[in-house]
From TrEMBL:
InterPro entries: Retrotrans_gag_dom, UDP_glucos_trans, UDP_glycos_trans_CS. It comes from Nicotiana tabacum. Keywords: Glycosyltransferase, Transferase. The keyword Glycosyltransferase applies. This is Glycosyltransferase. One of its GO terms (biological process) is glycoside biosynthetic process. It is an enzyme of class 2 (transferase). One of its GO terms (molecular function) is UDP-glucosyltransferase activity. Pfam families: Retrotrans_gag, UDPGT. Its EC number is 2.4.1.-.
Length: 276
């Protein structure tokens, strides 16, 4: 179950809530966990997701967004991997170098969003392996700070999403039918990744006994998912299956949520009227 704020905050929220708890998930993804939480909390837990953040185009980012989409337009279907690790975790120089080598070894097209701590002025060339940008200039795009994630994931050229396994990233990836390659970093991301593996929607990058990344193994996992080999084909099929189920049932389930909430509000008003 999604819990990005830590267990204490999540459980306090459950305890302070009323008879109904709304959560950003859906039965196709976490049905059994939703039922378990309902039993555990003795409250009605209702999935209302996946809620996907609307893509807003501003004058500030419109030019850069257009360049990215134009670049994707020139690539073959499902030939690119999108790489992003969210806005709350910043890769170490060692991790950046290993991921760079992995992408180069994979020989795939890629879009990689690189972020650094606020106020930290970093020259991208200084953190990447020497000569990397020149070697991948035909295959790769490095984007600083921010990219239109939803627009990228819905593009037909994207065949895999290498990510930290943040909850929003999982939901967006499944909504757009993009297979996941997970590289969890901290907090609840490891739990999310295990759940995604259990669902059959991801292949996880496994670190060594010291928690280090292995560039050859990472490249292999990326290629397997994007090229649909050695298990990657079943991941792709499962993601497509889930995407279709979510879209088919989405509006129906949301209508049921609205009906249930309206019924609850009506009952509360009737109760309050009797009390007065």
């Amino acid at each position: 179950m999604n819990n990005s704020l830590g267990p204490n905050v999540a459980f306090n929220g459950v305890e302070k809530s009323h008879d109904i708890i709304l959560i950003n998930t859906c039965n196709e993804i976490e049905g059994k966990y939703v039922d378990y939480l309902s039993t555990l909390s003795k409250k009605e837990v209702i999935p209302v997701g996946p809620l996907i953040r609307e893509m807003k185009i501003t004058m500030e980012n419109e030019g850069n967004d257009s360049k990215i989409i134009t670049w994707l337009d020139k690539k073959d279907e499902s030939s690119c991997v999108y790489v992003s690790f969210g806005s709350e975790y910043f890769l170490s120089k060692e991790e950046i170098e290993e991921i760079a080598h992995s992408l180069e070894l994979s020989e795939l097209n890629f879009i990689w969003v690189l972020r650094f701590p606020l106020g930290e002025e970093t020259n991208i060339e200084n953190v990447l392996p020497k000569g990397f940008l020149d070697r991948v200039k035909e295959k790769g795009v490095i984007v600083e700070k921010w990219a239109p994630q939803a627009r990228i994931l819905e593009h037909t050229s994207v065949g895999g999403f290498l990510c930290h396994c943040g909850w929003n990233s999982i939901l967006e990836s499944l909504h757009f039918g993009v297979p996941l390659i997970t590289m969890p970093m901290h907090l609840d991301q490891h739990t999310h990744s295990r759940m995604a593996v259990e669902l059959g929607t991801t292949m996880e990058v496994v670190r060594d006994e010291n928690g280090k990344l292995n560039r050859e193994e990472t490249a292999k996992v990326i290629r397997n998912v994007v090229m649909e080999k050695n298990g990657g084909e079943s991941v792709k099929a499962k993601v497509r299956e889930l995407r279709n189920k979510i879209r088919e049932k989405g509006e129906e389930e949301f209508d049921q949520v609205v009906t249930r909430l309206l019924h609850l509000c009506t009952n509360n008003k009737q109760y309050e009227h009797k009390m007065t």
